[in-house]
Amino acid sequence: MIITLKDTTAAEVASRIIEMRDQRGSAALGRVLTLIVVVDDLIDVDRAIEISDAASREHPCRVIVVVEPAEPSGPARLNAQIRVGGEAGPSDVVVLEPRGDAATGLDTLVMPLLLSDTPVVTYWPNTPPDNPGEHPLGVFAVRRITDSRQTECPMRTLMDLARVYTPGDTDLAWSGVTLWRALVATVVEGFESAPTRIRVTGHATHPSSFLMAAWLHRRTGVPVSHEADPEARTLTGVHFSFEGGAEVSLTRRAASQVAHLARSGLDTTYVNLPRRSTQDCLMEELRRLDPDVFYSEVLTEDLPRLPEVLDLLSPSGGNA
């Protein structure tokens, strides 16, 4: 069921949700959180609902999609849409389009729609705010999720987020390499001696390969370098060098879903390593609502120290 409300109020929207649920003989039971999705334009709403719908099948929630205008001006006005039932999957979906002065108090606007006694997660699928922790819809959220990969300059965006990091912040570039980190951790545990050098190959400006390099440095304490792969879309390989010339590498071609684990003196092993969708990454982030301490350390301490990051963000480093 879909209902569109013109020139309405948040209180009226909340009342209509309850009314619709009563008419269908159901209530907002089993909802584990409120997911606020902030987009820049109405054209982004359907994509936001598609992503949140997939995530809500694992984490039943109320989804509030807020269309935040760049420069709100004029008289206050609120248009809204409510989706309950088949169109919304297992969740309630509310789309809010505030205009004029109604967009200057977004926290007040969404308050009547938040589920009581459940945590709030705020997600920016496109361009994140300058400081998610101080954004009106991020202040009261236990987790704030951004996606630097969707911005024009991903690494610059990620480093800007590092400078204003607040416990509870995370970025989908980090969850995008979870499978890589898990597999590499297993490989590292099998080493009889520590590597002398580690090399990560990946896209020249994609944040995931840089995060992987920073994570490896924190985990091993071994010098890690990042090498641009002209064929890469994201991350294509992790290479370990040992004394005596031995090598171990985990690589995945740009268009492949299978990784190759090569070790000196042994046959190559093939390992399933599928690409992760945005929905997969968001579902992972919703599984834990406490601050990711390890991510904060990698983001704020290790990532800024990578020489390749410093070169990339230098005035002569090109578009990051």
Count the beta strands. Answer: 14
Which secondary-structure class do the elements indicate?
alpha/beta
Would you identify the regions where 5 or more consecutive residues have pLDDT less than 50?
none
Span of the ends, CA to CA = 44 Å
Largest sheet: number of strands, sense, barrel closure? 8 strands, mixed
Average pLDDT rating: 89
Radius of gyration: 22 Å
The figure for the number of domains is 2
**What level of helicity do the residues show?**
25-40%
Number of helices: 10
Series of H and E elements: EHEHEEEHEEHEHHEHEEEEEHHH
* Spatial strand sequence of the major β-sheet: 1-4-5-3-2-6-7-8
Beta-strand residue percentage: 15-25%
Shape: elongated
